[in-house]
Amino acid sequence: MEGDVARGQDLFQRRCTGCHAMEQNREGPRLRGVFGRTAGTVSGFDYSEALKKSHIVWNDTTLERWLADPDALVPDNNMEFHVARPQERRDLIRYLKESAK
Q1: Does the predicted TM-score (pTM) go above 0.85?
Q2: CA distance 98 to 81
Q3: Residues 60, 32, 51: CA angle, nearest 5 degrees
Q4: Which residues contact 6 (CB under 8 A, 6 or more apart)?
Q5: CB-hemisphere CA count at 13 Å for 71?
Q6: Among candidate residues 44, 24, 22, 43, the one with its CA nearest the CA of residue 34
Q7: Torsion-angle region of 33 (φ positive above 0: left; ψ -120 to 50: alpha; else: beta)
């Protein structure tokens, strides 16, 4: 099933904005344009060494794995949040993908 942009935006507002914003770094890096970006490369944000060295490019597959279990994808990263439900992950990814346009 495809992700839904509106549901993804709602999920982002409710569950992600405690640490992330689209346009500015907060506790987490800004997420506008995350789709297609190499992990650990937003200027002005202090990433974990593990994430900086991962060379991951964020796309459907890598974001799915990251949101499901950040520690499984990149051990020793600084993100302690995950999204348990597959549909919610698809919705968030669709929203992040659309926000890159």
Answers
A1: yes
A2: 22
A3: 65
A4: none
A5: 4
A6: 22
A7: left
Q: Where do we find the tokens 């970006």?
A: 37
Percentage of the chain beyond pLDDT 90 is 94
How confident is the model over 5-48, as pLDDT tens digits? 999 999 999 999 999 999 999 999 999 999 999 999 999 999 99
The amino acid occupying position 13 is Q
CA angle at residue 68 from 67 to 74, to 5 degrees? 75
Asked whether residue 97 carries a pLDDT value surpassing 70, the answer given is: yes
How much is the mean pLDDT over the chain? 95
For the chain, how far is it from start to end, CA to CA, in angstroms?
A: 22
SS3 content of the chain, % helix, strand, coil (to 5): 45, 0, 55
